[in-house]
Design goal:
Blueprint: H1 2-9, E1 15-21, E2 27-33, H2 37-43, E3 45-48, E4 74-79, E5 85-86, E6 94-102, H3 113-126, E7 130-142, H4 169-174, H5 176-189, E8 193-198, E9 204-212, H6 215-235, E10 239-241, E11 255-262, H7 279-292, H8 296-299, H9 305-308, E12 321-323, E13 330-332, E14 342-344, H10 353-370, H11 394-403, H12 405-408, H13 413-430, H14 435-445
Parallel strand pairs: 1-6, 12-13
Antiparallel strand pairs: 1-2, 3-4, 4-6, 5-6, 7-9, 7-10, 7-11, 8-9, 11-14, 13-14
Length: about 450
């Protein structure tokens, strides 16, 4: 009923987009005239299961059993609980209806990244816990009209400032019309956008999405936010990109994830009333550390991702944790004990938010189940310490993910197979491209 009410309140909407996230976080779906929206809501729609398992170019995976071996069978796409929402970056009034995929017999399709996250959330629910999640979204505004990428010309000053401006109000004000439209659009789409800052990269900004006690909704928000930012930037005459590292000489974009756990009474089970945190917090940290090496393919899913993960570039390269230390892979922020949480700092901005939260929350859950204890927290500069390393090569990360016992406790066999086949195909093709061609494919897709 809620979905029908939205359309009735917006008679100006002439078409809808129905879409689900594939393994790379790309929106795959259809354009449908509004007069057929009722059919989609009631019966869903259909497209091949292989569509959620395309490579970054949108091509079939050559050796995937989802394609010719199965006759390229359909899945059934049904609306998520999010319902209709506007697409403010398009000139014609249009609505988006997010979908997720089921098998013909009604079972969730295990290759759908949103269902992967749902399965982890259900496991938390079974032990009386609910994740509370917040995400920090870093991205670049880019002028890609010329041969080389650059920061766009400011609509206010008409100038192009080729310098990093960390926490600069001037940098924010230079693109005030874009950010004003972005916040208005977030309100329309019910995306909880909070503080905006300028970051350390060239034309780089960060917007925080407020904490949410529904991990699926938090992942939805991040997925929709990326779609909105990229679409709205184009309507302002430049590009926005979440690629991990568009410029060699500047820091890349991360997607830092904060989470805590609440019990059935709403109490934060990481809060011990002081700065240390509970045993449950330490179990979760230990689980994240144990799975970190083998989860790197989720945190760094593309060729360009590994350009970001170098020492001294504001991205973790060693597996560690610490209190209030941004050089560590896992940080426990200071502040009120009631807000005690961990911050997972490894992922780049180019990730699939559903797979990211599945990997982080799933790893923490294995630590809680096994009552793991982490090593001592580090102090000082993590880059200067002798620590276990996060993989710095794409091929190494693919192998680690495929062969990991702990990954098998987090992801289904179908999801592991599909992601590994996808990334091996992309790796083969990327080997033959120039750096400029790789940037070109990643700039708009991730």
């Amino acid at each position: 009923m809620k979905m029908y009410n939205w359309l009735r309140k917006h008679p100006e909407v002439r078409t809808i987009r129905v879409a689900a996230a594939d393994l790379n976080g790309q929106a795959r779906g259809k354009r449908v005239p509004t007069r057929f929206a009722d059919k989609v809501v009631e019966d869903g729609t259909r497209f091949p299961m292989s569509v959620l398992n395309l490579d970054i170019w949108g091509e079939d995976i050559e050796d995937s059993p989802l394609v010719f071996d199965s006759g390229d069978a359909d899945g059934v796409l049904r609306p998520t609980e999010r319902g209709f929402m506007p697409m403010p970056w398009l000139s014609a009034p249009t609505a988006l209806l997010p979908l997720w995929m089921y098998r013909e017999d009604g079972r969730p399709y295990e290759g759908d990244p949103r269902h992967a996250l749902r399965a982890i959330v259900e496991r938390y629910k079974a032990i009386g816990l609910t994740p509370v999640v917040a995400m920090e979204m870093e991205f670049f505004l880019i002028d890609d009209s010329g041969r080389d990428l650059s920061v766009p010309i400011s609509p206010r000053s008409g100038k192009r400032r080729k310098a990093a401006e960390t926490l600069s109000i001037r940098a924010l004000d230079a693109f005030d019309s874009f950010f004003t439209d972005l916040y208005d659009a977030c309100e329309e789409m019910d995306i909880p956008a909070d503080t905006a800052i300028s970051e350390a990269g060239l034309g780089q900004f960060e917007i925080n999405l407020m904490h949410c006690d529904d991990a699926l909704r938090a992942a939805d928000d991040a997925w929709l936010f990326k779609m909105l930012v990229k679409g709205l930037a184009r309507s302002h005459g430049f590009a926005a990109s979440f690629m991990a590292k568009p410029y060699d000489d500047y820091a890349g974009s991360g997607l830092h994830t904060h989470f805590s756990l609440i019990d059935k009474d709403g109490n934060n089970v990481f809060d011990d009333g002081g700065p240390k945190g509970t045993d449950m917090l330490h179990h979760a940290i230990a689980g994240c550390m144990r799975a970190m090496h083998d989860s790197t393919l989720i945190f760094a899913p593309h060729w360009n991702s590994y350009d970001r993960m170098v020492p001294g570039a504001h991205a973790p390269t060693g597996i560690s944790w610490a209190y209030e230390n941004r050089t560590s892979a896992i940080r426990v922020p200071s502040g009120s004990p009631k807000a005690r949480r961990l911050e997972h700092r490894v992922a780049g901005g180019d990730v699939n938010p559903y797979l990211l939260l599945t990997a982080i929350l799933g790893a923490a859950l294995t630590g809680i189940e096994d009552k793991l204890s982490p090593p001592e927290p580090i102090s000082g500069n993590a880059y200067a310490l002798d620590l276990p390393h996060i993989p710095d090569k794409w091929g190494t990360a693919i192998d680690a993910f495929e062969n990991s016992d702990v990954i098998k406790r987090i992801f289904t066999p179908e999801m592991i197979r599909n992601l590994v086949l996808t990334k091996r195909q992309e790796l083969r093709y990327m080997d033959d491209l120039t750096p400029e061609e790789r940037v070109d494919i990643y700039l708009d897709t991730v």
